[in-house]
Amino acid sequence: MRHPLRRTRFEEFRALDDVSFDVPWGEAVGIVGRNGAGKSTLLKLLTRITAPTHGRIELAGRIGSLLEVGTGFHPELTGRENIFLSGSLLGMNRVEIRRQFDSIVEFSGVEKFLDTPVKRYSSGMYVRLAFAVAAHLETEILAIDEVLAVGDAEFQAKSLAKMRDVAKDGRTVLYVSHQMQTVTALCTSALYLERGRLSYYGPVDGALERYRASFSAFAAEQTDASRRAGTGELRARSVRLAEESFEPAEDKILEIDIDANTAMIGQYFVSVHVNDENGVVVVQCDSRNVGVWLDPATPQSLTLAIRDLWLKPGRYTVDVFVCKTGVLDSWEGAAVFEVLPVSPYPVLAGDEALASGLVLSDYSYQARPAGGAAG
Amino acid sequence: MPPGEPRGSRAEHRRPPRKVDRTRVGPGKRTATTVITPPGRFALPRWAELWEAREVAYRFAQRDILLRYRQTVVGVAWVVLQPLASAGIFSIVFGQVANLSSDGVPYFVFSYMGMLAWNLFNNVLGRSAPSMVANQSLVSKVFFPRMIVPLASAASVLLDFLVALVLGVVLLILYGINPGWPVLLVPVWVVLVVLLSMGLGLAAAALQVKYRDVGYVLPWLTQVLLYASPVAYAVSEVPENLRGLFNANPLTWMLGLFRWSLLGLDRPPLWQIGAFAGAAVVVFYLGALFFQSWERNFADVI
């Protein structure tokens, strides 16, 4: 609640500035950049959800926006009603929806429940129907946010394939994503945005290179303790990994050196996060959980061994936090390691058997043929 | 522009807009070019764009109507039960207890017709005002002319009005009242009432996007307005010294027009007819202008 007579103070912020580009017909353009670079703002401007304050945008055709799954879906309406509502919101006219109706229903596989309110659908059915509507959008330009690629691996693959078809049709696709693999798989060129400015437009590889470089630049910046977040009462001096790469099932060993601060009272603890390429925190190793509290009077050397964590192949970053009641030192991207693309399982079953899930695990099946004479 | 070179220098930013050859863009299809520029401060709604999006309006209206009576037991009967009940209560409280005059027609029909007009005004305003906020998830996720949302909210009100009007005609027959030829003007009054309340509704809807206070103030204001307007009583009941105040209320004009056309009561003075038509058009125009000038920030502040 604010004082009714006081003027609200605000600061002007330009989310995007000096961004000029031309996209030729039939091009699938990936829009990449770190968080807050202006990717979503660019997409919102192009799809007219927000209005620009300066500049000019020319769209040679209708633009369809797929910024979420199930735009306009209402839980109380039936599948049929939702197809028409969502379709019209996405930019289809009645004739187009009628013409595509059967194909939408077929793609979604919910024929039987067309006249059931979608609130009674399973979440899988709901997503399939919602995506089916979006997939049949026939606008000349299609703007897609990565959030669209939700659901299980099979569904993601299906939606990516559909998006690729769209680009092959000679329509123009704009695709915002954090996931480098999908940008490489889908796009023919890419924009790289940096703090609201367009710093690169060209082949996908170039944009990805910049994107990766921005991560190492950020990591390099973080090695300078004074530029890191946290109160600074105590700083980690170095973080080293035993190896640069691990096998999935191997123990991951991390060495952390922390400075001393004799003026500090009380003990402190550390917390280490391991993040995957998409920034998902895979594991938090908090020293409080294992009863380790440290004395700030002397410099400390810690060895963290992460056991029984089977990571999927890929690139991981390590964040180190030194904390007491607040965060004393927050070192994001303190170390980077690679998990080698080898399978830790005894039998090689192909990529499909490893595709889903965030991590791998040590599991077993015990089969007891139950027969027919049970009981 | 071949991809491969970095773009974004100042000089390129200022180059004149590229001409688009309308016949050659797109895979063998003629497509129009949309140009997006920063909206002006007092841009009028783009009527062509609204017309283009009529399918969205239709689907919104359909959704509203379907949802109101889905999973209700008596369904559409609610449309007639509500005005009947309020007219019934009014005739007991004002007609019997307070014994107010109703200009010679049976009190029940008198207040029913008043409620009919009042409900049209009040419900258009009451449903359009919160409509933007109610659809906020859409506003931040997909583009369509935003004005479609409040405009489409009037559809369900009009449907309610039509059903209630049919019942009103039945009442007229039962009570043996013949309003004569002015009944033909009812559609005109309906259009004017919708314009008036939609103008207010558009402004309220735009305001409510930023200030949710509107949602609390508006129902209270309309409640006050209901008793300040001669819905449940005749203007002739109002003391002489307050008559001027009442006659300045556009809703007094509205109620007079409806009662003239539906009950065959005296025609309101001509100036009231002109003033009502003028007020309706001006209010709608200003409301649309206000809505439009606030629209650009909707997705950011909603």
Automatic annotation (TrEMBL), chain A:
Residues 1-220 form the ABC transporter domain. SMART domains: AAA. This is ABC transporter domain-containing protein. Keywords: ATP-binding, Nucleotide-binding, Transport. It comes from the Bacteria. Belongs to the ABC transporter superfamily. The keyword Membrane does not apply. PANTHER family: TEICHOIC ACIDS EXPORT ATP-BINDING PROTEIN TAGH. PROSITE patterns: ABC_TRANSPORTER_2. SUPFAM superfamilies: P-loop containing nucleoside triphosphate hydrolases (SSF52540). It holds the Pfam family Wzt_C. The keyword Ligase does not apply. It comes from Luteimicrobium album. InterPro entries: AAA+_ATPase (IPR003593), ABC_transporter-like_ATP-bd (IPR003439), ABC_transpr_TagH-like (IPR015860), Bact_Polysacc_Export_ATP-bd (IPR050683), P-loop_NTPase (IPR027417), Wzt_C (IPR029439).
